[in-house]
Design goal:
- The structure is a single chain.
- This protein is of the alpha/beta class.
- The chain folds into three domains: about 150 residues, no CATH class; about 120 residues, 3-Layer(aba) Sandwich (Rossmann fold), CATH 3.40.50; about 70 residues, Winged helix-like DNA-binding domain superfamily/Winged helix DNA-binding domain (Arc Repressor Mutant, subunit A, Orthogonal Bundle), CATH 1.10.10.10.
- The chain has 16 helices and 13 strands.
- The protein has a six-stranded mixed sheet. A four-stranded mixed sheet has the order 2-9-10-8.
- Helix 3 packs across helix 4 and helix 11 packs antiparallel against helix 12.
- It starts with 11 loop residues before the first strand and ends in an 8-residue tail after the last helix.
């Protein structure tokens, strides 16, 4: 496996996404390790105890794993649309890009601005519930004004054009009808949970073309990407080691097979780069920078233990702790699931918007509990699911019978 630049991978039609999975042996070992961790307090002694380390400073995290959390996707989106953009009269004027939830940095918006394409921003969310046809007329006028333009038009967030409410789909229906008649290159972005919903709610798939999405980030892609990010550090000599074994996870095997850590990370994140990126950053630990470890190293007579204690304080080593396990709050379980499902469908929502789409108003205390548990976060007035918690959220919804997205 080479760390030379790799060939970019074009986006593929929905339905061709290949979820990374653990080998049967690795999956069994992971299952047994979780059982042991839960019921057996006499764990095998780790290479470095995690309590001797601390969470890595934000500045260092940004040095070794800097945002945005999409890796090569901007370039891959570019090559996926390049030929179509250059066609004077394409067979399809519309292109649909479907992405998993949690992409916080505006991939489509960045792509549009990079090429000076026109952007069509969504209306204010609660205005979608206005009585009468005022909201519809305002939306139609926006599309009609852009229809006369040239070049590429980009709607980066189709999931911001509706609310799951009896009055919250009217504008979306009008928008889709206008897009069907558009004679201009138009790229439409939508998150995968919203796409599942609006296909059923307004038959959006009968108007919009078949969607495309990126190819999953398997162990090899993740290892290569994170290695490149680490190379950006000013020292260019950072080693990433597991606290459990001391293994250098970036080291290449003789067969060029990525370390098992990346196999697990790819499977845990469903191959979604921003989920893997958040899990990676959360797992990184640094030495204590205190006198404690040095003092213990001097006192111990065990040479191997002394080596480990000194290594823990090496400022050129970052340690990878166990990936955090997220647990959904037990109280108000049904309401918690409904909140999380609504946040995924809408790509985030305010408390007011949540109360409009759920069976009953949302208790502020419940949102606070979810934030404290690390399940959601708030940006301004908008609540969103934490990308690192997405595997637990998706699993909880699936087990409870909620319809889940499909890439």
């Amino acid at each position: 496996m080479s760390d030379e630049p790799r060939q970019l991978r074009e986006f593929r039609p929905l339905g061709q996404y290949k979820l990374p999975s653990l080998q049967t042996k690795d999956a069994l070992q992971l299952f047994l390790a979780r059982i042991k961790k839960r019921f057996d307090s006499s764990q095998d002694k780790p290479y470095i105890a995690e309590e001797r380390l601390h969470h890595t400073a934000l500045q260092i995290l940004n040095d070794v794993a800097n945002p945005p959390a999409w890796g090569p996707l901007l370039d891959e989106l570019d090559i996926s649309l390049r030929d179509w953009v250059l066609e004077e009269r394409p067979a399809q004027w519309l292109k649909l890009i479907v992405l998993p939830p949690g992409e916080e940095n505006g991939l489509l918006t960045k792509w549009a601005k990079q090429h000076n394409h026109d952007l069509l921003d969504p209306p204010e969310r609660m205005s979608l519930l206005q009585p009468g046809d005022q909201a519809v007329q305002e939306a139609l006028s926006l599309v009609q004004a852009q229809a006369k333009g040239s070049g590429v038009l980009v709607l980066p967030e189709l999931d911001r054009w509706f609310l799951r409410h009896r009055n919250g789909l009217t504008v979306l229906r009008a928008l889709l009808e206008s897009l069907a008649d558009l004679q201009r290159h138009c790229v439409i972005g939508c998150n995968s949970w919203a796409w599942l919903f609006i296909k059923k709610a307004v038959a959006a798939d009968m108007i919009l073309p078949e969607g495309m999405t990126f190819q999953a980030f398997d162990a090899s892609r993740l290892r290569h990407w994170f290695h490149q990010l680490g190379e950006a550090h000013e020292d260019h000599d950072i080693t990433f080691r597991l606290t459990r074994t001391g293994d250098d996870v970036m080291a290449l095997s003789e067969d060029d097979v990525p370390h098992d850590f990346f196999q697990g990370l790819a499977a845990r994140s469903f191959g979604i780069p921003w989920v893997a990126w958040h899990l990676w950053r959360q797992s990184l630990r640094s030495g204590s920078k205190s006198e404690t470890l040095n003092g213990e190293a001097e006192e111990t007579e065990d040479a191997e233990a002394k080596h480990r204690l000194v290594a823990a304080d090496d400022d050129r080593t970052l340690w990878i702790a166990s990936l955090e396990e997220y647990t959904l709050p037990g109280r108000e379980h049904d309401m918690v699931l409904q909140i999380l499902h609504a946040l995924l469908i809408h790509g985030g929502a305010s408390a007011e918007e949540l109360s409009a789409v759920l069976p009953r108003p949302v208790e502020p205390a419940l949102l606070v509990a979810l934030r404290k548990a690390g399940i959601i976060y708030r940006s301004g007035s908008t609540y969103r699911c934490q990308p690192a918690a997405y595997p637990a959220i998706r699993g909880g919804l699936a087990i409870s019978g909620f319809p889940t997205d499909r890439l």
